[in-house]
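Page 47, continued from p. 46.
Same chain as before, 110 aa.
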Amino acid sequence: MSLWADYCKEKEGMETVENENGFLSYKIFDKTKECFIAEFYVRPEARASHLAKDLLIEVSKIGKSKGCVDLTVQISTEHKNIDRMLRAYIVNGFKFYKADTSRLCFIKEL
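Result:
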């Protein structure tokens, strides 16, 4: 486990799936049966691969095995690469479900 994964676990109770080219940190909310994606990063040189999709699939399987019915994510409206982030989630089956002045929220049924 990386230092980042240790930090996420200690600070927020998040779990992390990772490899040498990327990571996805998530938190499961039992009450709402939601698996929330908190942090997601893939190295620029690996972004043309299927790594992002593979990480999303892995976390989806984990969430489903723990009783989650939805995979959710919030994207800051201030994100430097918001267009790339939007494409990545939409291509992977996420649907827009709400927004406010600082974030866009997406959901994918598991």
